[in-house]
Amino acid sequence: MKKNLITCVLLLFFIQSGFAQQNTNKRAEWFTDARFGMFIHWGVYSGAEGFWKGEKLRNNNDYAEWILYRNRIDRNEYVTLLDRFQWDDIDPEEWVILAKNSGMKYITITAKHHDGFGLWDSQVSDYDLGDYTNPKRDIIAEMAESCKKHGIKLCLYYSHWVDWEHPLGWDHTREIYKISESNYDRYWQQKVIPQISELLTNYGEISMLWFDMWIHHSESIVTKEQLLQLKSLIRELQPNCLINSRLGLSIEEDPDIDYKTLGDNQLGDKKEEFPWQSPATVAHSWGFHISDNQWKSTTTLLKSLIGNVSLNGNFMLNIGPRANGDVPFEISQRMLEMGKWLELNGESIYGAQAFDLNKDLHDWGKITCKEDGNSFKLFLHVYNWPLSKHLNLTGITANPDRIYLLADKQESTLSFSHSGAFTEITLPKNQPDPYVSVLVVEYKAKPEISDELVAKTSDGGYSLLPGNQNPQPKSMEITPSAKYGTVPAFVAANGVSDFSWKIYVDKPGTKRVDVSYSFQGYLNNSQIVLEVAEQSLYHSVHPTGQTVGEPNQDWHIDNFESNKMGTIDFPEPGFYTIKLSIQPTERDPIKFQWLWLK
Ligand code: GLC
User: Fold this and answer.
1) What residues pair up with 266 in beta bridges, in sequence order?
2) Phi, psi of 482 (to 5 degrees)
3) pLDDT tens digits along 407-428
4) Cα gap 403→506, rounded to integer Å
5) Can you tell me which atom of ligand 1 is nearest the CA of 162?
6) Ligand 1 within 6 A of 214 CB?
7) Closest CA to 40 of 325, 458, 350, 416
8) d(CA 350, CA 309)
9) How would residue 26 be classed by pLDDT, with cut points 50, 70 and 90?
């Protein structure tokens, strides 16, 4: 009987955790599909524009929304910044329309940032817009209405950990002037819990709560119990509301966290199977800052979005409106340009995913993909229109059905040839899109890949590096590029060291082989041996000397030199394995950089 009971409890536990996992994925489906959202940093600080009493924000990391803390402003005086707000001109619907026209599917607005000031009419605090505007303004209510009207998901940023207003909230000076856990819990119970209840009760559907504790809870004053209390309150009030990992719980620790938020302006660098997101700015600051002007170009921003989607990620791009509601032109212009691009090319972004090939395989851009009814589509985002007007696609063994430009409504097909694991596409002479042109490669079903290959570059060669061997030898130590990139990455061969790569050669013919290395020893009998297609090439290693990395800086570095090894005849199209052996005869290492075949 007892045994049965235990089995039942265990079963229930597994079923429940199974559901939790499934629900998590279900809940986040819209987010995964949406891919692109707007972040809005707007609050009292927007009136300061990065300056307080003529003094610029006291920190080189000019985050304008930090001015209260950075410039040690009294919180009661801080709110005098609201005198600068031009309420008649402020219309949140304009932000929502901008998001819509920019192709964004959700908006996350700072309901309460670290300054502790709420943008709604909160009944549990008197530090909010309801108490400081006449007639009362409730920006969250206005946003909720506009988002509903325009079909955009409303998400709220809420600073739970840091609060510079509440006498018992976390302010970084608490590192010096401590606060007890029990006092901090009073802040938590008095402000965080009831405010989250208000936000999830009074404004209709909230699609996501975006928390901002960028460290793990164990390093902070916040306890895991407090976070779990908050999480279960959210699950109870709005079970579909997403929660990001900056709650302070990682998705590894708690699979019920819906997605991972990377660092500020941190783009993805590897494919993940769970949902994730990069929060990003067009310049640097989140809140409006009068001297912030390192504007990223539209192309850069589009590439950030595409790059993230190609690794299963999301991209949330920020606006910091001014105290009259205006969005800086440099931001809105770029966003609208992205929107125009998405109008033509959105199919490669919304609901699209990472493809299975290595993310850095091709030198021309990034790939996303989509299963689409009866076909499978690859979207090739071409960042650099090849001079040859031919696009080399390596690694796919299936023959495509057809290829066309995504922006071409007629879907006029482009000619191509395919053999083995290589497709060569003939491109129109002129790059059709000034930012990024997208080709659709259609297959009957998800194509098989050959993912151990090194791709043919846009200029028709093969760049064989220690780092793109596949599989990567476990014991091989690659010394990363150093001295600001003036010294390239290499492998120091102290004894015989073997390397190997696989390539697909699509046309028979002769290719020249060059090997690049640095050797600082004396002339001896060390050699480098290459074997491929039943042919061998030998190179006698010679000292390569030094070079100047940077003029007038006493910056002398080992010279890496490319040497012709000879030529190899590839008798027929096919897969070839290239083996390279570095054979030093003395203690001085041969630093192998790369092999070039063309
Ligand atoms: C950081 C900053 C904050 C900004 C946020 C956006 O956590 O503290 O000011 O809101 O990043 O990602």
Assistant:
1) none
2) -135, 180
3) 999 999 999 999 999 999 999 9
4) 19
5) 8
6) yes
7) 325
8) 9
9) confident
**Do 489 and 479 contact (CB within 8 A), yes or no?**
yes
Instruction: Give dist(CA 489, CA 545) in Å, integer.
Output: 17
Tokens at residue 343, please? 């109008």
Q: State the pLDDT at residue 10.
A: 40
CB of 279 within 6 A of ligand 1: the answer is yes
Is the Cβ atom of 264 under 6 angstroms away from ligand 1?
yes
Whether the bond into 471 is cis, omega within 30 of 0: yes
pTM: 0.93
Report pLDDT for 25: 67
Q: Quick one: pLDDT band at residue 333, thresholds 50, 70, 90? A: very high
The amino acid occupying position 274 is: F
Joined together, the tokens standing for residue 393 give 């696609």
Strands 491-493, 546-550: pairing kind: unpaired
Count Cβ atoms below 10 Å from residue 325 Cβ, excluding itself.
20
- Ligand 1 neighbourhood includes 120 CB (under 6 angstroms): no
Among the listed residues 375, 345, 366, 383, the one whose alpha carbon sits nearest the alpha carbon of residue 271 = 366
Spatial neighbors of 24 by CB under 8 A, at least 6 apart, are: 255, 256, 257, 258
HEC letters along 415-437:
CEEEECCEEEEECCCCCCCCCCE
Whose CA is closest to 155, among 241, 236, 43, 235?
Answer: 241
Which residues have C-beta within 8 Å of that of residue 402, sequence separation ≥ 6?
411, 413, 442
- Pick the closest to residue 230 from 278, 158, 123 (CA basis): 158
E strand segments, 373-421: 375-382, 390-394, 402-405, 416-419
Rounded to the nearest 5 degrees, what angle is found at the Cα of 227, between the Cα atoms of 221 and 228? 145
> Which 8-state DSSP code applies to residue 93?
H
Q: Tell me the best of 264, 267, 289, 292 to mutate to test the pocket of ligand 1, counting ligand atoms within 8 Å of each CB and taking the most.
A: 264
Which residue type, as a one-letter code, is found at position 571?
P
Block residue for tokens 């959105």: 346
DSSP secondary structure string, 524-576? -S-EEEEEETTEEEEEE-----EEEEETTTTEEEEPPEEEEEEEEEE-SSEEE
* Closest residue by Cα to residue 110 from 132, 90, 140: 140
CA distance 245 to 191: 21
Length of the chain: 598
Question: Going from the N-terminus, what domains does the chain have, and what CATH number goes with each?
Answer: 36-343 (3.20.20.80), 353-443 (2.60.40.1180), 462-597 (2.60.120.260)
| Rounded-to-integer distance, Cα 574 and Cα 584, Å | 32
